[in-house]
Amino acid sequence: MNRNNIYILEDRGLLYISGDDAKEFLQNIITNNIENVSDDRSCFSALLTPQGKYLYDFIIIKHKSGYFLDCEKKIIENLNEQLILYKLRSKVEILNLSNEFVVANLTKEKFLELENSKDEMGFTIKFREDPILLDPRSDKLGARLVINLEKLYLSIKKLGLKVSDVNEYYNYSHELGIAQIDTNNLQDKIFGIECNFEELNGIDFRKGCYVGQENTARIKLKDKLNKRLLAIKVLDGEINSNEITSENQNLGKLLINNKNPFALLKLENKKFNFDADLRCGDAKIKALKPNWL
User: Does the global pTM surpass 0.85?
Assistant: First the structure.
């Protein structure tokens, strides 16, 4: 991606969690450690079912006296309702600020030109009082700017950036093996640890209890991870089935079927054969090997 490009991620939404109990509230339910989130450090995290299955993932950014949760906009109301269920009597306020704030993506190279920036995933600085952070999942994804919509285009001008086709960003994310679109299709179908959250810095195995912690820790400690969510590329033909096969052997299932598809694929001896000839219905496909695997 061109260093002077910026991508406006209109499909992202923002919840704002604040109140006296906000930190403790999040710490008790999310997969990562909220203690590591500060004015200069953001993190990637998730909310799981009690059985450890995927529900939602988000980036957590400290802002003023609370926390932004940067998540896919189409699931934001459901995430809000889920958080309210866990709120009980906690002194917490949850606001949907998706109509007031927007998320934009810029390159790592541009981020490192900014004053006080560091080449560390999750490192967060302020630009005109708005947080910019190097993506905590992979620095190859660049940096994220969370900004009031009214200030967006003036900040873009001050940064000397050009608004570019957001599909470039999501195609690149797909190549990196990081799913961000239609993640609702993963809900309750895949364990959080199978979503590669450990490799994407989304799970802290030392923090203690959270929702879904028991099964997540068991899979990790007993070395039971035998499936992974991997990006799929269509080489020829049309996908008209969810079943993925190789030499008549079932290897997995397509879970996200859009222009950047993802599938849950079986591992053999903790590895996957990325050279295997795969079929998905009438399509010839291949699994893309992410750089972090």
Answer: yes
